[in-house]
Every structure is written in structure tokens, then in C-alpha cells.
């Protein structure tokens, strides 16, 4: 989530609008976590709401359904349940989030058995409706698309509005991490740094583009390891937010670029076990660097 905020709502909803089932165009779909990515094109087919496998919409989902409830449409994919207004936006979102899930799960060495329950995705009809939703859930007006637990609440824009694939991949990463690591909380810097890295890497890989060419420059990545680890809540100032995101991503990008990529899951596990960054680095990458001083020196020279 781009910034933390509390949601205070008590909403209930009943919705009997048609539901769409998403079926792959190709005859077979590779499961995320395996080598082959999901198919590019997915078509939408209507289905009844009560037939959806996950009826737990959550408080924010119920609040979303209070906005013109008769106009909500619904779709089911292999891994998500999607609620939307227009088929055009739903089609694009479905294609990208299925790929993002596959990419993130594969990067973390996770099989499908770790995310069998389908989570909900709400796609709003342009900025006007999005602001109405933010008002309903008492979220700041400036809030962009966000993940809340394993759910996604998306303002992907309508006709004439920009579609931000990087932001979508970033927030999908948060939702996927929530599914892969239920009841576990990543350190703040690792949570946002990993999502930022995945936001660029997933989009570049899906588009078959050179990753370094798409990666953003580190203009605010100046927080030290110690400063990153000291952050337990989101900063209130925009400049500090940029520092958190970019400094966190710089650490993750360094690990994914300079060391074996398949060790990132072990590194995360070490952090979740309570280890500080130094201890986690030496536990997982100790055969690649003689000591943490050497690691720090190499990191300070790393730019992209």
C-alpha cells in the first residue's frame, strides 16, 4: 500500500448482479509457480454471483458494492475474483495480475499450494467513482490504487486516463505476498522495496524488455541500512516516502542483481525469523561475501 491509513466503516451489501467466469483462450493454462507463464489473452463469460468460490468480500469490498451495486459485473480467473464496470479495463487488469502473480510466486519459489484461495479485485470506473469509494471508506483523497491484505482496490483509469502497469504490479505484489505469507509481517522497507522491484521486473519480463532499461534511477535512495530498519511506520512527508521506497528497492535490486536470484526467498525467511539485515545477509549470502563490511562497500558502489 502506498501509505498506511485506518479504515473505519460498517457496511453491508447484497448484490445479485451477473457474474462472469474467466476462461483461458488457449486450451491449457500453466499454473503460476511453474516455468510457463499464464496465457496472454483471457475471455470473460457471465456467471451467477452465488456461484463464486469466495464470498468473503471484506469490509472494504462491501463498501465498494454500495456504489451503484446494480452496475457491478464479476469475473473469475484461475487465481482471482474480479469485480468491475467495463470489460476493457477488466480484460487488461486480468491479463496483468495473473502474470504478476505468476512472476512473484516464481521469484519466491512458491507453488500454487500456497495460494489456492482466490482473492478479490475491485476495479473502479474512473477517478470520479474512485474518489467516491475513498470517501466511503474514509481514506485520504490522494490515495492511489492499493492492496489491503490479499485484496486489490484499483483505479486504473477510464478512457483518456493513463493505465499504470508499474503501480498495478507493485500493488499486486503486496496482495500476492499477503497470500504467500499469511499472518506474517515483512519489515516495512523489505515490503515496499520488494514490491517496487517486482513492479519493474514483472512488467519488463512480461513485455520482453531489457530490465535495466526500464528500472528507475535512484534519486532518493539515500537511507542507510540502519535508517531503513528503524522505520516501523510509514513516514508522513512525501520526500521521506520516496526515500523509503527507493532505498528499500535499492537493497532488493542489489540482492537480485549481484547475488543468486533464487535465494531471495531464504533471505525473506531469515528476516521473518527475526534477523536483522546484517544477520540475514550473512546467513544467506555468506558464501558470496567474506563479511558484512565487504557487502556494505559493494552496495555503496551499486547504482543500477
Protein topology:
Layout (H helix, E strand, L loop, with lengths): L18 E6 L17 E6 L10 H8 L7 E4 L3 E5 L2 H21 L11 E5 L2 H11 L9 E3 L2 E4 L10 H16 L7 H19 L4 H4 L10 H6 L7 H21 L5 H9 L4 H9 L6 H10 L3
Parallel strand pairs: 1-3, 4-5, 5-7
Antiparallel strand pairs: 1-2, 3-4, 6-7
Helix pairs in contact: 2-4, 2-5, 4-5, 5-8, 9-10
Q: What's the quick description here?
A:
The protein has 2 domains: 19-180, Collagenase ColT, N-terminal domain (Glutaredoxin), CATH 3.40.30.160; 188-301, no CATH class. Helix content is 44%, strand content 11%.
Q: How large is the radius of gyration?
A: 20 Å
How many strands appear in the DSSP assignment?
7
- On the 0-100 scale, what is the average pLDDT? 86
The tally of structural domains comes to 2
CATH homolog superfamily of the largest domain: Collagenase ColT, N-terminal domain
The CATH class label of the largest domain is Alpha Beta
Q: How far is it from the N-terminal to the C-terminal residue, by CA?
A: 24 Å
Number of helical regions: 11
Task: Just name the CATH architecture of the largest domain.
Answer: 3-Layer(aba) Sandwich
Class of secondary structure makeup? alpha/beta
Salient structural properties:
seven-stranded mixed beta sheet, disordered N terminus, alpha/beta, Glutaredoxin, 11% strand, globular, 304 residues
What does this structure look like?
The chain is α/β, with parallel strands linked by helices and 304 residues long. The chain folds into two domains: 162 residues, Glutaredoxin, CATH 3.40.30; 114 residues, no CATH class. It is built from eleven helices and seven strands. It has a seven-stranded mixed beta sheet, with helices on one face. Strand 6 and strand 7 form a beta hairpin. Helix 9 runs antiparallel to helix 10. It is globular and about 60 Å long. The N terminus is likely disordered.
Amino acid at each position: 500500500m502506498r501509505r498506511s491509513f485506518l479504515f473505519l466503516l460498517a457496511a453491508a451489501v447484497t448484490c445479485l448482479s451477473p457474474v462472469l467466469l474467466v476462461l483461458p483462450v488457449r486450451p491449457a493454462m500453466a499454473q503460476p509457480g511453474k516455468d510457463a507463464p499464464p496465457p496472454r489473452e483471457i475471455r470473460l463469460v457471465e456467471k451467477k454471483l452465488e456461484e463464486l468460490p469466495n464470498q468473503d468480500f471484506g469490509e472494504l469490498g462491501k463498501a465498494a458494492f454500495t456504489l451503484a451495486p446494480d452496475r457491478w459485473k464479476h469475473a473469475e480467473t484461475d487465481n482471482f475474483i474480479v469485480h468491475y464496470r467495463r470489460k476493457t479495463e477488466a480484460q487488461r487488469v486480468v491479463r496483468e495480475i495473473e502474470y504478476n502473480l505468476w512472476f512473484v510466486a516464481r521469484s519466491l519459489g512458491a507453488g500454487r499450494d500456497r495460494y489456492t484461495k482466490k482473492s478479490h479485485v475491485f476495479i473502479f470506473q474512473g477517478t470520479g467513482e474512485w474518489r467516491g469509494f475513498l470517501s466511503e471508506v474514509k481514506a485520504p483523497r490522494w490515495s492511489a490504487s492499493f492492496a489491503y491484505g490479499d485484496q486489490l482496490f484499483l483505479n486504473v483509469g477510464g478512457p483518456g486516463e493513463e493505465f499504470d502497469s508499474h503501480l498495478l504490479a507493485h500493488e499486486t505484489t503486496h496482495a500476492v505476498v499477503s497470500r504467500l505469507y499469511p499472518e506474517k509481517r515483512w519489515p516495512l522497507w523489505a515490503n515496499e522495496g520488494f514490491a517496487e522491484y517486482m513492479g519493474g521486473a514483472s512488467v519488463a519480463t512480461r513485455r520482453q524488455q531489457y530490465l535495466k532499461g526500464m528500472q528507475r534511477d535512484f534519486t532518493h535512495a539515500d537511507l542507510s541500512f540502519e535508517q531503513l530498519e528503524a522505520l516501523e511506520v510509514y513516514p508522513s512527508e512525501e520526500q521521506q516516502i520516496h526515500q523509503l521506497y527507493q532505498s528499500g528497492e535499492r537493497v532488493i535490486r542489489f540482492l537480485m542483481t549481484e547475488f543468486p536470484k533464487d535465494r531471495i526467498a531464504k533471505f525473506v525467511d531469515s528476516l521473518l525469523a527475526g534477523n536483522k539485515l546484517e544477520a540475514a545477509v550473512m546467513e544467506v549470502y555468506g558464501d558470496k561475501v567474506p563479511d558484512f563490511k565487504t557487502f556494505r562497500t559493494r552496495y555503496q558502489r551499486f547504482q543500477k
